[in-house]
Automatic annotation (TrEMBL):
This is Eukaryotic translation initiation factor SUI1 family protein. Residues 206-234 are annotated as: Disordered. PROSITE patterns: PUA (PS50890), SUI1 (PS50296). Keywords: Initiation factor, Protein biosynthesis. One of its GO terms (molecular function) is translation initiation factor activity. The lineage of its organism: Eukaryota, Fungi, Dikarya, Basidiomycota, Agaricomycotina.
Length: 650
């Protein structure tokens, strides 16, 4: 919603006391909080400002009265305000950082957050945790979920809300339908979008470990089953409930299939061998040493098997034939140092060094470097040489991210295509080409009576007519079909006439005007078609989808975007030739002034006759921003030419 600059911000003004009271009551009732808490979130003197998004959606934003005027709430919809019963009041991330429990939330991996900030919606594969009581259309917040290594222990962490959106489907469908495609949440507002940038742009509050009630960590499942079951029934799920739900799932899995600590250690060693085989073994010597924590987080953890049961069958399975049971396989994310027999990262790395897989260095006493260093890996180790690669967690996560990116890129392309201008180049028979088209019409009159020498034709139609003419008159060269034999009409159309040095002999002059300069027997097909087009009159048509616009006479040229040095060493970006593309100089100048945050000006094009068009100047090197803006206005990329005159290149 706010991924691009917001247009037409009106002047902000304080809410009247009565309006603030209504807004406070609406917040209290909408989010089930008491009036005292609503007083804090709707402070006295709160400002309101109307706006239009880049999609021309109208709305009202409510800003804090002091400081940097952080946006606190917003409402979408033309003519809506907080007093209307059906108006949906939406908290911003600034407000959710003050009270994260205003909205139920979903969590998503760290890699997905930049995609949401870029304007994408949250897809189903990107959901890690969600409540069991969310309804379609319900407001939710989005938090970042990640596992952080703390002293050799992989700890689940959850960030404060970083986005706000509406559910596309209910959580029951999200959990039970088994869908792998489609959207989970329509994103309305995110951290770092243009609404957020109106405020103080303060740092995001610290992420917190996910803990269940009683202070136990998410990984501990022994003594909290009853608490977890109670939490799962809560309609408004907080951090503790999310952790409990995940813990319950882990507990159920533990009852049916799990690895012993020695087996986890074996899997971690296999992950290390996989990392050496696939990436670490090819690193240059200069890439080492690597701190142990980074080595574990960036190389070992991503190389854990995504389907560990296929790599190492678990010893606690009640049947030798795993495929015949309904028991779930072990969770690959449970393969950590904490669940292994080593219990610490240092012990694991020392064991790997003892077996000859790696070399390590212990930091000296009183040194600023407290982390063990991995100084080398042994790519020639026998275990590495005979290792058979397996599907890893890192590959699965990367595949999910690529899939989401592809879907979002496809969505952007479809949206751009729907907004793109329909540009047609047309040609009309003129002068020498009139006789050629009359001959073609005469040849095809029994087949097609629609065409006429006075019509406008696009490139495909001209090609089709000429190809039919070549075939009808058997003009295709028998030795090389890429060449066309010229008859008298084609020669008169495309072969230049002689230029006379003197006009004394009128009879010779008349003869020269009626015949080509020299006999040309054949021409290449493409060159012949280009020659015919050059003798025709150029027209063009530029229209938005669904509009009915009359064609205009003249040759359509691309918009020119040139960066030049003016007045000494000052660089400016100049835009010309935009008028045929339904762009107005004043609107273009104003939009670019806001987009580029720099001065702009409008002037006639220097050295051109009057009415030749205007030139818009933007201060600074803004070529990329201008090109992106023009494409956003529907101008196809092929109709934009960018020049860097400073460097002398295009």
């Amino acid at each position: 919603m706010f991924k691009k600059p917001v247009n037409n911000w009106k002047t902000s003004s304080p809410l009247r006391t009565s309006d603030r009271k209504k807004l406070r009551l609406k917040v209290a009732s909408s989010f089930s909080i008491d009036t005292a808490e609503a007083d804090v979130l709707v402070p006295e003197g709160i400002l309101s400002v109307k706006f239009k998004s880049h999609l021309n959606d109208s709305g009202v934003a409510y800003l804090a009265p002091d400081g940097d005027h952080d946006p606190l709430w917003f409402i979408l919809g033309k003519g809506t305000d907080a007093q209307q019963e059906d108006a949906l009041i939406i908290p911003t991330v600034y407000t959710l950082w003050k009270n994260s429990k205003l909205l139920p939330f979903l969590s998503t991996p760290k890699a997905v957050i930049p995609i949401l900030i870029g304007g994408a919606d949250l897809m189903i594969p990107g959901v890690v945790h969600c409540s069991q009581s969310l309804n379609e259309g319900q407001l939710v917040s989005i938090c970042k979920y990640e596992r952080v290594d703390v002293d050799g222990t992989l700890t689940p962490m959850l960030s404060p809300p970083l986005a706000v959106g509406r559910m596309v489907i209910g959580s029951d469908q999200l959990q039970d339908s088994g869908q792998e495609r489609g959207k989970a949440v329509y994103i309305l507002h995110t951290w770092k979008d243009h609404l957020w940038e109106l405020g103080s742009k303060g740092d995001v509050p610290m992420s917190e470990p996910i803990k269940i009630e009683g202070g136990e960590d998410m990984e501990n499942t022994e003594d909290s089953e009853e608490k977890k079951q109670k939490q799962e029934g809560d309609a408004h799920i907080g951090v503790e409930t999310i952790a409990a739900a995940a813990t319950q799932s882990d507990s159920d899995s533990t009852k049916t299939s799990t690895y012993t600590p020695d087996e986890v250690s074996q899997l971690l060693r296999m992950s290390l061998v996989q990392a050496i085989s696939q990436s670490l073994g090819s690193l240059p010597v200069s890439a080492f040493p690597i701190p142990a924590t980074i080595f574990y987080t960036n190389h070992i953890l991503p190389n854990r098997p995504n389907y560990p049961v296929l790599v190492l069958p678990f010893s606690s399975a009640p049947s030798d034939d795993l495929a015949s049971t309904d028991l779930p396989g072990p969770d690959p994310s449970s393969i950590t140092i904490k669940t292994s027999s080593h219990k610490s990262l240092t012990a694991f790395l020392k064991s790997a060094e003892k077996s000859g897989l790696i070399s390590t260095k212990t930091p000296q006493k009183h040194s600023a470097q407290t982390d063990m260093l991995v100084t080398a890996v042994n790519a020639s180790h026998p275990d590495v040489q005979v290792h058979r690669s397996f599907a890893t967690i890192g590959e699965a996560e990367a595949k999910a991210v690529r899939k989401t990116l592809r879907e979002e890129e496809k969505k952007k392309q479809q949206a751009a295509a729907s907004l793109e201008l329909d540009i047609r180049e047309l040609w009309k028979p003129h002068l020498n080409s009139v006789e050629l088209f009359e001959a073609m019409m005469f040849s095809f009159k029994l087949l097609n009576g629609v065409h006429s020498p006075s019509n406008l034709y696009n490139l495909q139609e001209v090609r089709s007519l000429l190809s039919s003419y070549f075939a009808t008159h058997q003009l295709v060269n028998s030795h090389d079909q890429a060449y066309i034999n010229l008859d008298r009409i084609l020669m008169m159309c495309v072969v230049p006439k002689p230029k006379l040095k003197s006009s004394k002999n009128k009879s010779s002059s008349a003869k020269a005007e009626s015949e080509p300069q020299a006999e040309v027997e054949f021409m290449k097909r493409d060159d012949l078609i280009k020659g015919v087009l050059d003798t025709m009159q150029s027209w063009y048509q530029v229209r938005n989808a669904g509009d009915d616009v009359l064609p205009k006479k003249g040759k359509l040229s691309p918009i020119q975007v040139a960066m030049k040095t003016r007045q000494g060493r000052k660089v400016s970006t100049l835009i010309t030739g935009f008028e045929p593309f339904n762009l107005v100089a004043e609107d273009l100048s104003e939009d670019l002034r806001k987009l580029c945050a720099g001065a702009t000006s409008i002037a006639p094009i220097p050295g051109k006759p009057a009415n030749s068009g205007m030139e818009v100047l933007v201060q600074g090197k803004q070529s990329k921003a201008v090109v992106d803006y023009l494409q956003g206005k529907g101008v196809p990329k092929k109709w934009i030419e960018a020049h860097d005159v400073i460097k002398g290149k295009k």
